[in-house]
Amino acid sequence: xxxxxxxxxxxxxxxxxxxxxxxxxxxxxxxxxxxxxxxxxxxxxxxxxxxxxxxxxxxxxxxxxxxxxxxxxxxxxxxxxxxxxxxxxxxxxxxxxxxxxxxxxxxxxxxxxxxxxxxxxxxxxxxxxxxxxxxxxxxxxxxxxxxxxxxxxxxxxxxxxxxxxxxxxxxxxxxxxxxxxxxxxxxxxxxxxxxxxxxxxxxxxxxxxxxxxxxxxxxxxxxxxxxxxxxxxxxxxxxxxxxxxxxxxxxxxxxxxxxxxxxxxxxxxxxxxxxxxxxxxxxxxxxxxxxxxxxxxxxxxxxxxxxxxxxxxxxxxxxxxxxxxxxxxxxxxxxxxxxxxxxxxxxxxxxxxxxxxxxxxxxxxxxxxxxxxxxxxxxxxxxxxxxxxxxxxxxxxxxxxxxxxxxxxxxxxxxxxxxxxxxxxxxxxxxxxxxxxxxxxxxxxxxxxxxxxxxxxxxxxxxxxxxxxxxxxxxxxxxxxxxxxxxxxxxxxxxxxxxxxxxxxxxxxxxxxxxxxxxxxxxxxxxxxxxxxxxxxxxxxxxxxxxxxxxxxxxxxxxxxxxxxxxxxxxxxxxxxxxxxxxxxxxxxxxxxxxxxxxxxxxxxxxxxxxxxxxxx
Length: 617
Description:
This protein is α+β, with helices and mostly antiparallel strands. The chain has helices spanning 42-50, 57-67, 108-116, 167-203, 209-231, 258-266, 288-300, 322-332, 351-355, 380-402, 418-429, 442-451, 472-493, 502-533, 538-559, 566-576, 581-588, 600-616; strands at residues 6-10, 15-19, 70-71, 75-81, 87-97, 101-106, 120-126, 137-151, 156-163, 245-251, 275-281, 311-315, 337-340, 345-347, 364-373, 414-417, 432-433, 436-437, 455-466. The protein has 18 helices and 19 strands.
């Protein structure tokens, strides 16, 4: 599947080019799909590489990840030993790179010399955004010649070489050890200081019971979430466990991304007779339907993928909302598990195989996969969100997954038992809160219905990538919508979460209390105390800095990404801006507008404001 390096996305005020990873095109349009003509599986094909039938699926996935080629444009400085034993230098230009090798263009005589060379060394820099997060670094590595390629149309010569060690191992050897040590030391120091500060809160508790109670609860909530998140382990893959799955993609005005989303869903390492994809278009006003149908027809031309029997488009005659689309797809689904995927999210080829594994437990009602940011390196805002997403899933949601009580099976990638979705479908579609119809927060709402009587899990190895807002205006509207749905569904969940495992229940109630009270606590510490008592809030500010540092250090420790510093920026931005959306959410929870796209509710609201403005004139 070939991506484009930069995609122009329209927003209400400006256009931003989203920077995405660019994977080298494969000779097959769906390289991970089981080839029905040759009747072979991806395990069969990869077993030839390893020459063993005992390899685990985890090793297969690791091998796949190392072999993914990304289109790049790096200058390379190289040296090699020629046939006479002399060391020579050469310059080249990288065309694509994977975790195990690199393809570069060079002079034809250099290709000839490299073929005869017994030793080669390459120097280049992996720039941010050209490979997955964590790989950005300067490389000085040994390699061996593999073969020469020619492009007669461009009269160019390309040399393919294999690294002496995979880049992942090179990264761990060169950078991983000291980064791990530094991050671990900083993590220990930050945690120790936080605990000492909370000890101080206990000592001085009698002087301000409310403030110190809040500080103790906040520290306990965050530290225990990180602790249990660290204990979490994903379910192992049983290659023989492949229940039937129907992927449902609700679509509304998503012509930019819908083709990529469909390809990611159908290009899965999964039995073709057990996987179908249904795209439900919610009466889009752009060219989404045309793009969907064109994608389906193009894939149908290759008979070996059985596209005609397992990829469908269901256009809605009128716009009914996302929940209606998901409900319609579920009713049409022929398999026992349904997977909901947002129309701007892109699945990794092993996502479905990983996502279904927790359903070995018959009490499991739904499972959330991990969502990473696809456009991380677009600007500082997307980098900030990338850190937030990773920590929110890998630590916070993983901590809930440790107790099989995930409170939000996220929209970009989640799997449910179809019978449960159908059981709660009418109540879900007709949900009202304080007399107002709920039109967003469908993922949290459905999770509440299922979590009340069933388990909900998290599978960190089921990965998808999603497009996040790249402008602050769209980002703020998205965050406001999320806070309204969080407020509504959290209040509903308080009625049954006390029945869950005690540790999880306590953590949940602390997690509800902390953000609700946070605006008042911040005003008290940063406004009331300095003005009334003329005391600078050093301790409070230090506490916020430490919490921000905790998020960033965990990003550095687990992902080794250069984006870790943006975790601090997210926490600062949260305290300055996002925190104050919560009081607004308290009094506007009834609003049904999305803010980030023109749904019927948004059109109605826009018309109302226009009429009001006209009346004033």
